[in-house]
Amino acid sequence: MAGTQDEEPTTMTEQDQLRVAVVGAGYFAQFHYDAWARIPEVRLAALIEPDTDKARATAARFQVPAIHASLDELFEAGAPDVLDIVTPPQTHLPLVEAACTKVSALVCQKPLAPSLEEAVEIVALARAAGCPLIVHENFRFQPWYREAKRLVTSGALGPIHAIAFRLRPGDGQGPGAYLDRQPYFQAMPRFLIHETGVHFIDTFRFLVGEVTAVTARLRRLNPAIAGEDAGYVVFEFAGGAGGLFDGNRLNDHEADNCRLTMGEMHLEGERGVLRLNGRGRLWLKPHGEPEREHDYTWQDRGFAGDCVHRLCRHVAEHLTCGGPLENDGAAYLTNVRIVEAVYRSHAEGKRIVVD
Predict the structure, then answer these.
(1) From the CB of residue 299, how many other CB atoms can be counted at a distance below 10 Å?
(2) Residues 98 and 85 sit within 8 Å (Cβ to Cβ)
(3) What domains lie within the chain, and their CATH numbers?
(4) Alpha carbon distance 342, 352 (integer Å)
(5) E runs forming strands in 118-170
(6) pTM for the whole structure
């Protein structure tokens, strides 16, 4: 169930803190500003946004001390340690190209790029510059998936043989779909899998292991958008497990906030089944026993269990203390390749082995 946590004390001096600048002031950027502002190791140094009204409103809300209309302006004033890119996918390549030799690390929202080729180029640019690139793929940082991973690792479910997610956020109906939050969704030629399904590709890999093959059938239900908004994808995993992503963005599910989990999951192993509902609650059914709620705590703050803060904190801890890093750009290309395999499977009407 949801819980509360005490705020972490801010004890670091400004000289010790990572200076973070954020590019963008759209709908989702608010969660990034809020997340960075709550991390003691971080100082929000600047925002970059050409829309003056958006920039001023965001700077005032999150107490960002400097506003710049472009990266050129930012770098003239002094490069930050970290640049966090929270803009639509088609802008990522030029932003990474302009920044990778000037900052110590880059964080970039997903989708990483409109195509696999551009994603590969982005990773290559950062690598050549010696600049760490972290993809802001936050679903695996949602508390229910972190707890599910802990249960899997502990052996509570036994060897995993199946995972299924039923996506039903209910936000994609009619001509006004997505216009109040992320209007560029309507024009994306690839939508359900490229923009949303990639979250669950990453989460499936996080919980079950590497994907070896996919079979997909996609379709468009809402004629107001350019891309697909419904479909089924069957996954095969290296360990022999199977997976199903059953998604459409038109229907909703039982939840107070349909965007909290965006749907419902079943994770099945030899020893039992773990079920996630739309309120972020987990239910465990050991084999041959009644289902019971699995109690764990999480903070109902920010976006989807405060997963943006969890990811930003993970990045800050890596950059200040070292240690392993999740969502490294080069490793993340596997997700992009699986996305391409899904679209190829749909186009060719056959099972595709993932390269």
Answers:
(1) 14
(2) no
(3) 2-136 (3.40.50.720), 139-290+326-353 (3.30.360.10)
(4) 8
(5) 133-136, 160-167
(6) 0.92
